[in-house]
Amino acid sequence: MSRVLTLVIVGGLAAVPAFGASPDPKDLAIPPQELSKARELVKRLGSEVYRDREEAHAELTKMGRLARPALLEGATSDPDPEVRYRCARLLPKAGADELKARLDTFLADTEGKYEHDLPGLRQFRKLAGADKASRDLFVELVQSPYNVELLQALDKGPTEAGRAIADRRAMLYSGMQQRNVGGVIKPAQPIALADVACLLFAEAVTPSKDIPRAGQFAYVSGVTFVTQNASVQAINNPANTPHAEPYKKIIAHWLETREDANEFNNNMSYVAGQLLKGFKESVPVLRKIVTGEGVYGYNKGQALMYLTQTPERAKAELPFLKSLLTNDTLVTTVWFGGNVPNANPIQHQCLLRDVALAMLVTHTGQKMADYGYVFPPGVILNQQNIGYGNYAFETEEKRAAAMVKFGFWQLKGSPAPKPDTAAPKKDEPQPKAPPPGIIKR
């Protein structure tokens, strides 16, 4: 189906279905007599008489969706090239009519009694659920012809879906910007929750590698839109936001599928670690950022900071932090003032393993100064959330010594068996069991 026809025909869709539309998709079945009529008209498309061909063409256009099966047959298998050409020209309009009829039927099915064959609907239900709240969000979503176009692309495979996602990102992002159109300033447009939901859903079911990136939109992704007002309201105030619950289900699946370094470098640490910290799926995303290839060092540092921002989270992440003690990724450069007045600042590197060790030290009740860390003058660290970039080792030797010190601390700090759980000595008398019927007090 052509894009123009999709927008024109589906764009006329309203929240209320067409008058008299049946809620049962079975009522969309094409009567045999209509199918026979369409096939006869398709044959006439190959007539030797020009007027016959034109009349058949016009009649098939009027039939709309009722002629679609016959047009599809003609476009793919008729031996006459004239028939194939004319059927191919008529198919987009018939396909658009078919889609609108199915959407009208879906909207008429207000109680959700029937199964509907709509673009993206089955995958949408897998992610967001099949309850009334999910259906209501899908209804809201298909009010936009651009969303319908994106859903259609999802059913055509990852390549088509990826292109459609890139186009939709660019369109939404452009709408967010204030523009000068012919000397008239057009204000930025707020993005509706349904539009964000549709994009995140599409991204959740399409591999990142299949979504092209180019020019100024290289770093535009779902991360850009999940921070918009409608999205934030649904996340933080779901009780007063329509469609919030199915939207949050979509976000959960979207988080599970994040893997692209471009997204990780585009504010994903904040999104996963702060805005979406109530989602359990945010923790694996933060770990991916820390260990991912192509992720900038400062983003890795931010992700570690959010992973350990509460004592409970820090305790849970101790094994992960220990796994980073050999990682030499540069997180940031730390500048210290020299001891001599007017001297040039001294530059030190803060590596990922330095940040991990600092977090291990502070969250196990130890002091960073005891491990040889140095700090810029006047810096006072918050022991509960030390962040990164405010400390470093002056030399590689001090860094190595700190790692050794922590290794010895782990050996030394191994918990000894508790007295009441220690095995009894061999020559100690064992307590006798009380006689039957007597309760030992």
What does this structure look like?
By secondary structure, the chain is mostly helical. The protein folds into 3 domains: 1-109, no CATH class; 118-257, no CATH class; 311-415, no CATH class. Helix content is 53%, strand content 4%. The protein has 20 helices and 4 strands. A two-stranded antiparallel sheet has the order 1-2. The longest helix is centred in the N-terminal third of the chain and has 28 residues, at 81-108. The radius of gyration is 32 Å and the shape is elongated.
Task: Compute the separation of the termini in Å.
Answer: 83 Å
Number of helices: 20
What is the percent of helical residues? 40-55%
Residue fraction in strands: under 5%
Helix-and-strand structural type: mainly alpha
Question: Strand sequence of the main sheet, in spatial order?
Answer: 1-2
Shape: elongated
Number of domains: 3
- The number of strands is 4
Task: Compute the CA-based radius of gyration.
Answer: 32 Å
